[in-house]
Amino acid sequence: MKLITKATSPFGLYTQFVAKYCGIDLEIEEIKDLAELKTPEYRKINPIGKIPALVVEEDKTICESDAIAMAFAEIAPEMKLLGKDFLSRGQVREWLFAISTDLEGIIAPWFHAAVGAGKPIPVVIEPSKAAALKFLKVADTQLTAHTFIAGDELSLADFALSSIMVFVYRVLLGPDLRAEFPALMRHFHAMAAIPAFTETFGTPEFAKETPIFGKDAAKKAKKAPATPAPVESDYSVPVPDPSLPTPTAVKIREITAEDDGKRVEVNGWAHRIRNNGGLIFVTLRDGSGYLQCVLTKKLIKCLKAKQLLAECSLKIMGTIKIDERAPGGRELKADYWQLLGGSDGEVKAKVTFESNPDVLLTNRHLVHRGTNASNILRIRSHTMKAFRDHFDSRNVFEITPPTLVQTMVEGGSTLFALDYFGQPAYLTQSSQLYLETICPSLGDVYCIMPSYRAERSHTRRHLAEFTHVEVEYSFISFDDLLNRIEDMVCSVYDGLWERHGDIIAELRGKGETEAPKLERPFMRLEYMDAIKMCNEGPNPILKKVTRTNEDGSVETEFVPFEVGDDIPEAAERELVERIGRPVFMTKFLAKMKAFYMERDAQDASLPEPDQRTLSADLLLPGVGEVVGGSMRIPDLETITRKFKEEGLSLDDYYWYIDLRKYGGFPHGGFGLGLGRFICWLCGIDHIRDVTLYPRIEGRCKP
Q: Which pTM does this prediction carry?
C-alpha cells in the first residue's frame, strides 16, 4: 500500500503513527508542492484534492485520515484500537469525530496565526483560542477519570488526539496553559513513550510561551518596568493562623484514632491531586503511608495554589479527622500549607502501565514513587530483615566478605574483570569460598551481599548483579542441609505473611486474606528421576532442539531429555507446576556441577563424571530455581586434585586449600537469590520488577 502525503502534514503523520504501531509497512509518496493536489492525476486518486490518500490497489483508494487509520486498525484487529465491544466502539468513534470535526476545525485560526500562515485578526483568533481551550478542558476532565480518552483501553482516538497535540504543544501551549491540563499532559507523555510515536514525530517539543496577538502583543512590546517584577513567592502565599495550637510533627503511619481532632504537621510529596471546585484533595505520601489532605477557601485562592502539582513536596498543617469514608479511614483538614519543592506535574506522565520496559528502566527513579513499586521495596526490606532474624535465632553469624576478588567460583566465562592497581581482579561471583574459611572461627556463617555474573541472559530471572543470601554450615550431613534450607524458607515465608501479609496480598492481587498453604515437607526428587518424570506420561515435557541447516534454514524439534541434560528454565517451571509444591531436585551428576561439590559415596565405583553429587536446587512454583546448594569436598587430597584438573593455580587459592590442610571438616552451604524469592512470595513475573536498579546487558544506569 502507498500513502500519499506531505512530510509536515499532521493528518499524514497521524496515519503513519497508526500504521507503525499496527506493524503495517507503507510506501510513502511525498507531495512537495500543494499545487500537485489540483492536478487531474491526483484528482483521480482523491476528487476532493486533499491529503493523505491511501492507494490500496490501482484505482482503489481510501481518503481522509480517520478512514485510513480505521482501515489500518481493522488490518490489525488484535490491537483492538476500534474498541472491544459495541459500547466501546461507539465511544471510540465519538471521540474520533469530535477530534476531527471539532478540535481540528476550531484550533486552525489560532494555529495558523501562531505559525505566521494567516493574518492575526484578534476577532477571529480569540474565539478560536477560547473554543480550543474549552475542548482541551473537556478532554482533560475525561482523562482525569480515565486512563485513555475513550475509556480505560488504548484506542484509535488516543492516536488522533496525541497526533494533533504534538503541534498544539509545540506551538500554542506555553507552560502556563500546559499546567491547566495535567491529565492531558500525562496522556501525551504516555503516547510519546510508544516507540512508533518517536519513529513518526521524533522527540516532542514544547512551546516556551503561549503566543499572543493584537493589543496584548503591543502591550507586551511596550512594557518596560523600571524595577524587577515581584517574585511570586514574596506575595499571595498561605499564612499560618497564630491563634491555632502548635502542631505536632508526625509521620503518616503514626496517626491513629486517638489523634482525632489533634492539630498535626505532615511533610511529604503530592502523590495525587484532585481539584473539585472549591476544594483541592491532596493525597500526601511520606514514605510511611498515604494521607488525604483537604485544602479549602483561601488556601487554594492564593497564587501559590497554581503550583500544587503532582510530586511537589509540601508541608501541611491541619486537624486530623477520623472518617471511615476517607481513604485509610482518616483525613487532614488543612489550615496551612507550604510548598517545599516544586514540580512540573508531568512526572507520572513519563511512566505509565502502558510504558514499554525500556522506558520504565530509564525512569526507574520515578517508577519507585508509585504505590506498587514502593510496596515492593518495603517487602524487599522486610524480607532481608526476616532472613537476618531467622539466622540470628539459629545462632548463625553474619559476615561481610569482599566483593573485589582475584579468584573465581562459577567459571571464568561469567567474570567481570577489572584493573586493581595494575593487577587483574574481578567482581565476585559468589562469597561461598570466603564463608567457608570463617566456619572454623564462628561455626555457622552467612552473608547478604551482591554477586555478579557476566551472563548475556535476558530471561525473567537473570541479572548481571543480584542480591545473594549465602550460608555455610559446619559439621552437617546432606539431609541436615536440606532440612535447614526448608526450615529457612518456611520460617521467612510464615513470618512475612504474619507481619506484612496485607502488602504481600496487595502485590499478589488475588484477593487473599491469609497466606497460601505452603506444602510441607518439600518434595525431594533426584535428578535422574526428574529426567524420567519429564519424559513419561501422555503429555511429556520435552527438550527444544534448534538446528541450522546448510541452506541457512532453521529447524526446531522437541525430543525427550537425556541423562546429562540441564533441564532449562521453562521445562523446570512446568515440572514444578505439575508437582504443585516446592521441590528439592537433588544429586546432579558431577559433570554438570562445580568441582568443589562432594560426591555421593554410593557412586565411588562409577567413572567420576557419572557420579552423583550431594547437591540440590530448590524449585518453587512460578519461579523455578531459587536456591542452589551442596556439601563441599572436605579433604585436602581430593580438593587439591580437583583444582589441578580445573587448571586453577593452587597459589591463588592457598587460603581456601588451607581450610582442608588445617582440620578439614564436613560442611555444606547454599546460595539464595533474594529477587527470585520475592518474585515467588509476591507473585511477580519478572526479577527486574523487584530490583532497585536492575543491571542487565546493555544497561548500567540509572
A: 0.68
